[in-house]
Structures are given as C-alpha cells and as structure tokens.
Design a protein that fits this description.
CATH superfamily: P-loop containing nucleotide triphosphate hydrolases
CATH architecture: 3-Layer(aba) Sandwich
Number of helices: 8
Number of strands: 10
Shape: globular
Radius of gyration: 18 Å
Bound molecules: adenosine-5'-triphosphate
Distance between the termini: 33 Å
CATH class: Alpha Beta
C-alpha cells in the first residue's frame, strides 16, 4: 500500500526564476509503501533536506503534489498542515530537539498532551516505548544528564508516541558516535519490523543507510538512481559505496 506519493516536485528558492533563484528540486517523483525503510543520499547541496522538508509538509513545493495516507498535503493551508503533521507524522532531527526543562518522560508524552490523551494512555504508551528502546531507567532524568544516544532514543520515542503514519528523520545519526549510531539504527529497524512504521531518512552516513531497505540517490535536485537491499547489511553497504562513487560529490561518512 502506497503511503507517500510525490509527483513531479519542483522547489525553487528565492523566487520562481531569474537571478538569485536556486532550483533545489527539479521534478522529483517518489512513492513509498507502508512499512518501507528508505534513505535518501546524495552530495552536499543536492537537495536532500529540501526534499525531506517538502515531503513532510515542513516546506511547500513550488510545483508538484505530495500525498500522505491519501491526503493531498500540497493543497493544505498552513494551519491544516500543522495539524496534519502533529497527528500523522513523527520527526527526528540531528540536534535531538528535546526540551531541557522537561524530563525524558515529559518530553516523550508532550505530543500526547497536545492531543489531550488520557493519563492512563500516556503512561501505557511511554512505558511501552521506553521498554522497546531500553530507556526505562532514565525516564525521570533531564536531557542534559543523559548521553547523546539516549537523547536520540528519547526523540525517536517522542516521534512515535501518537502512532504516526510515517517518521521523517534528517541526519538522525549526525551527532552520534558509531556505537550510538548503531543503536539508533537498530531502533528504527525495530519500529519498522515490530510496529510496521514507515521511515524516511536523509543521511550522509553509509553505515546508517545500510540498515534501510532501500536507498534513493539524488543529484542536482533529481533522482539519479535507487537500490534495494538484497543479502546482508555488509553487502548492501558496499553497494551503497559503489553507487556514491558513481554519484561523485563530497566524501561520505563511513
Ligand atoms: N532557504 C534556502 N534559501 C535559498 N537556497 C536554499 C535554501 N535552502 C537550501 N538552499 C539551496 O538549495 C540547494 C539544496 O539544499 P539542501 O539543503 O536541500 O541540500 P542537501 O543535499 O540537504 O545538502 P547538505 O548535504 O549539505 O545538507 C542548495 O543549493 C542550497 O544552497
């Protein structure tokens, strides 16, 4: 079942044409099925973050359509989009974006508070996620007293708490060491395998991308190629590196 469908997306920054305009996306079409785990890779400046932002409704395309769960988000007003994002989507960022004045538990349940869920629902949910991601013992701590990897697992729990149709992640391992990156990617694997969540992430990190089912490569704002995992993660990692070598551009994190 297709969960995200993007058709002919164009994004121009700084006016639709003329001097000073940058065409960041140039006719991108992409479909993602429920339960897929997809990475977007490409050289610096190729349009990865722009694509993630347009697909997730953070930013509007200059032209083209995006639908998620059958709803055309490109036609929604700002308020409708904000509500749709809050109810249907989960976000994970490189910087974790946790609130320092709230405990881990409070950070996780914040989106449920906004949705006016019951205290019992919040409790059940937070303990289920904390158990899944092994952060039970730090629920009463504050973000500045836990490790980067624990902060990111808190952020992933928060992204999941309202059962989103899809999770979007921008460089989720960008601030983590290799061990914590592996733990976070295993968390994403768990939510795809055990909760059938759909995950789309942008990454420079070949190791992180090798956990995904599929990698889409973009260059100059266009889809260049895509590969699907067959065989082991190590074999997939080697194929990703081969494709990046063909793509050119900056050095990638391995
Ligand atoms: N707000 C903006 N205003 C103007 N141009 C922008 C803006 N954001 C991005 N761009 C330009 O659009 C193009 C694509 O940028 P984008 O950030 O999507 O690339 P990226 O592949 O995510 O890069 P990186 O890997 O370096 O983060 C680049 O040429 C960039 O300079």
């Amino acid at each position: 079942m297709v969960i995200l469908d993007a058709r002919n997306i164009v994004k121009v920054y700084g006016g639709s044409s003329g001097e000073g305009a940058t065409k960041a996306l140039d006719g991108v079409s992409l479909s993602i099925n429920k339960g897929e785990f997809v990475a977007i890779m490409g050289p610096s400046g190729s349009g990865k973050t722009t694509l993630l932002n347009v697909l997730s409704g953070i930013d509007q395309p200059t032209s083209g359509e995006v639908s998620i769960s059958g709803e055309e988000i490109s036609e929604m007003s700002g308020d409708q989009l904000a509500l749709f994002r809050r109810k249907q989507l989960g976000f994970v960022f490189q910087e974790f974006n946790l609130l320092d004045s709230l405990t881990v538990k409070e950070n996780i349940i914040l989106p449920m508070v906004l949705e006016k869920k019951t205290a019992a629902d919040m409790d059940t949910k937070v303990h289920g996620l904390a158990n899944l991601f092994e952060i039970d013992s730090i629920l009463d701590k504050y973000p500045y007293n836990i490790s980067g990897g624990q902060q990111q697992r808190t952020a992933v729990s928060r992204a999941l708490v309202n059962d989103p149709a899809m999770i979007f992640a921008d460089e989720p391992t960008g601030n983590l060491d290799s061990k914590s990156s592996a733990v976070i990617m295993e968390c994403f694997e768990k939510i795809v395998d055990e909760l059938s969540t759909t995950v789309l992430l942008v990454t420079h990190d070949v190791f992180a991308a090798s956990y995904c089912h599929k990698v889409v490569f973009i260059k100059d704002g266009m889809i260049y190629s895509s590969i699907v995992k067959k065989g082991s993660r190590k074999e997939f990692l080697n194929r990703i590196m081969d494709n990046l070598a063909v793509l050119g551009g900056r050095t990638y994190d391995i």
